[in-house]
Amino acid sequence: MTDIRILLVDDQELVRRGMAMIVDSTDDLVVVGEAATGEEAVVLTADLSPDVVVMDVRMPGIGGIEATRRIVRETPSSRVLILTTFDLDEHAFGGLRAGASGFLVKSAPRAELLAGIRAVAAGDAVVSPRVTRAVLDVALPRLPRGGADGGAGGADVAGAPVASPFAVLTERERDVFLAVAQGLNNSEIAARLVVSESTVKTHVGRVLSKLDLRDRVQVVILAYEHGLV
């Protein structure tokens, strides 16, 4: 298996060193670079193409949110995991809006940090159901709905019907889409649908591919836009 390549971004060297020690203690993760500012993070991500950028949000210069936005735009193959001081921090919401694949608090246990990095590298989003609800309530209140009635249908400016983007999904894929939008993880979806986790993972991958979505966070946003959650 290929190692998961990590770029650590934090303006405090001791924090970076501590995270580097945790990451380097594993067999499948490797630190390929460190950055102390958002500007450095953008440049190093372009140069190194890490699998995951572990990003602090409060730093001198452009900060972690703008750095995340630039990385997602300029180096889309690299995914960003936001680290924040407080759970449900407004900065974490800003990071999700900028394209981050999730966030964790800095006080998270070692195992949770490593699991979060692996999940983001695998294309999942590190966002709990409680945080998913908070994203909908706080971070996305002004997103336009998909149709005039808030549903998945609607019409364009000329009055012509607009096809639902979900028409490309099978019935089971729609079930998986809604479960992901509600914040369920793969094991919870497997229990709900009475299928294996590997089957769920396959369906999630197909949903993301068919709807041209980056990760689970975008599933939540799309579901909200179309009035499904």
Please tag this protein with its features.
single chain, 229 residues, alpha/beta, Rossmann fold, Arc Repressor Mutant, subunit A, 2 domains, five-stranded parallel beta sheet, 10 helices
Overview of this structure, please?
The protein is an alpha/beta fold and 229 residues long. It has helices at residues 13-24, 38-48, 63-74, 90-98, 110-121, 129-139, 171-181, 186-193, 197-210, 216-225; strands at residues 4-9, 29-35, 52-56, 79-84, 103-105. The protein folds into 2 domains: 4-126, Response regulator (Rossmann fold), CATH 3.40.50; 145-225, Winged helix-like DNA-binding domain superfamily/Winged helix DNA-binding domain (Arc Repressor Mutant, subunit A, Orthogonal Bundle). A 5-stranded parallel beta sheet has the order 2-1-3-4-5, with helices on both faces. Helix 2 runs parallel beside helix 3 (63-74) and helix 7 packs across helix 10. The protein starts with a strand and ends with a helix.
Helices and strands, with pairings:
Elements (H helix, E strand, L loop, with lengths): L3 E6 L3 H12 L4 E7 L2 H11 L3 E5 L6 H12 L4 E6 L5 H9 L4 E3 L4 H12 L7 H11 L31 H11 L4 H8 L3 H14 L5 H10 L4
Parallel strand pairs: 1-2, 1-3, 3-4, 4-5
Give the SSE string: EHEHEHEHEHHHHHH
Fraction of residues in helix: 40-55%
Oligomer: single chain
Structural class: alpha/beta
Taken as a percent bin, the fraction of beta residues is 5-15%
Structural domain count: 2
Number of helices: 10
CATH class category name of the largest domain: Alpha Beta
Which outline best applies? globular
Could you tell me how far the N terminus lies from the C terminus, measured between alpha carbons in angstroms?
38 Å
Summarize model confidence as the mean pLDDT: 80
